[in-house]
Amino acid sequence: HGTSRINEQGHLEIGGVDTTELVKQFGTPLYVYDEAMMRETIRAYKQAFEKSGLRYEVAYASKAFCTLAMCRIIDEEGLALDVVSSGELYTALQAGFPAERIHFHGNNKTPDEIELALTAGIGEFVVDNFHELKLLGALASEKGVIADILLRLAPGVEAHTHEYISTGQEDSKFGFDMKGDMAKRAVVAALTTPGVRLIGLHSHIGSQIFETDGFTAAVDIVAEFFGKCVRELGANDLHKLNVGGGFGIRYTEEDTPLTAEAYIAAITAAVTTAFDRLQLTYPEIVIEPGRSIVGAAGTTLYSVGSTKDIPGVRKYVSVNGGMTDNPRPALYQAVYEAMLANRANEERDELVSVAGKACESGDMLIWDVKLPQVKADDILAVSCTGAYGYSMASNYNRIARPAVVFVQNGQADLVVKRESHDDLVSHDLIPARLTSGVL
Ligand code: LLP
Question: Can you tell me which atom of ligand 1 is nearest the CA of 392?
Fold first, then answer.
């Protein structure tokens, strides 16, 4: 994976940095991101589009992993940025990310969030529902500005993925339904709402997708509707077709993602075919990958603590993190691979299960993984944790969130500090009536 290798000491090295050195310097648990790998993936998407000669935009879905440093990388690489909350928006703005390249998503943007986005002058809103359309139109008009919008459509396409992470099907909280007349009514409403300009249509069919047929099916449906909007409804400013994100990555051998090139080739082919048929000018094609940009570039380093051997049943190996830094196994039965970073060359002759430290039986990071005979203080490296790990981390059990480092060219940079115990109580208050005898 990426710049990872096993060095002369038999240690896992990422970005030219020995992970055992990272542990000495920054402690564990630690999220380590291979910066070169992220940049490489981004460039692969761009190159695939360049080949097509079509107008395109790649937006990074920051929900996968959003920090100031990450926003800087996305800006340096010239991508647009998707945000889904005022928190992500604020992070982007604090990182100096150009507002005009920010897209605002979400099925329940609050008035305060819309206000912040309008004030910042973000590039576009992906409007999810009638309530939002009305609210945005009113707030934009009040400010005397016009907000560029895309309408989020639910094309009724089911991606083959875990049901909690598939979003394009009909029975979904997201977007305007295309089966009835809801989507058409949304377009008419958008065209008659002051303060907004309809510039595009959007669909997102799900996440961790390994085939192209879902994208092709969604493009067909949305392109057909695009034609209707232009020809019959007078949507003259329509020029963007956003097909969402969802490109899969290889967590384990069983996963079979396609290359960036293959996904983009299928999408561009579907778009050109549909628009040729409709005899319409090709739209600007937009994708918004999150997981595939950061997922495989992230590795989490843990320290091993206790073990429990139940003869004939299972050996549990506990690490100093778990569902608080990576809730995906508990939430989605997600499967990960791991290795001992400090003994990367040793024979893996023991089958163990890796447990987290939270007080919950479900806090298991990996059921059944082959490792060398594990002992306390070994360093366990879990790979492909870069997406929806840090961004979904919690403080359950008042466990502090780990630090994050970016590594490249033999250099490690701390990009998120480890939370301290003081951080954990920093928002707590004790009402005066409870302080007697204590303070
Ligand atoms: N665009 C929209 C509108 C989305 O809803 C999402 C993800 C993306 C783009 C980016 O999708 P990606 O390329 O990252 O697959 N927490 C779950 C994944 C939730 C995805 C939500 N939407 C997980 O850990 O698997």
Answer: 16
Residue 273 and residue 128 share a domain: yes
Q: Are 304 and 341 in contact (CB under 8 A)?
A: no
Q: Tell how far the Cα of 231 is from the centroid of ligand 1, in angstroms.
A: 32
With beta carbons less than 8 A apart as the criterion, state whether 390 and 404 touch: yes
Establish whether 359 is a catalytic residue.
yes
Q: Where are the beta strands (DSSP E) in 288-360?
A: 298-310, 314-319, 338-340, 350-355
**Ligand 1 pocket test target in 45, 63, 267 with most atoms within 8 Å of CB:** 63
Q: Among residues 66, 71, 359, 384, which one is catalytic?
A: 359
pLDDT, tens digit, for every residue of 57-105? 999 999 999 999 999 999 999 999 999 999 999 999 999 999 999 999 9
- CA–centroid distance, 349 to ligand 1, in Å, is 36
Q: Is 35 annotated as contributing to ligand binding?
A: no
Point out the ligand 1 atom lying closest to the alpha carbon of residue 126. Answer: 3
Atom of ligand 1 minimally distant from the CA of 247: 13
22 and 62 fall within a common domain: no
Q: Indicate if the pLDDT at residue 238 is higher than 60.
A: yes
Give the tens place of pLDDT for each residue, 277-318. Answer: 999 999 999 999 999 999 999 999 999 999 999 999 999 999
pLDDT in tens, 365-384: 999 999 999 999 999 999 99
Would you call 259 helix, strand, or coil by DSSP? Answer: coil
Burial of 102 (0-12, 13-18, 19+ CB in 10 A): buried
Distance 142 CA to ligand 1 centre (A): 33
Domain that holds residue 236: 54-289
Q: Residue 162 above 60 pLDDT?
A: no
Ligand 1 pocket by Cβ (under 6 Å): 61, 64, 105, 165, 167, 204, 207, 244-247, 288-292, 328, 332, 387-388
Instruction: Note the pLDDT tens digit of each residue in 383-422.
Output: 999 999 999 999 999 999 999 999 999 999 999 999 999 9
Which protein residue has the closest C-alpha to ligand 1 atom 23? 388
Q: Coil, helix or strand for 354? A: strand
Q: What does the pLDDT read at residue 170?
A: 73
Same domain? 248 vs 314: no
Q: Average model confidence (pLDDT) for the chain?
A: 96
| Residue 166 or residue 98, greater confidence | 98
What's the pLDDT score for residue 163? Answer: 56
CATH number of the domain that residue 212 is part of: 3.20.20.10
Q: Are 57 and 348 in contact (CB under 8 A)?
A: no
Q: Which helix (H) or strand (E) holds 125?
A: strand 124-127
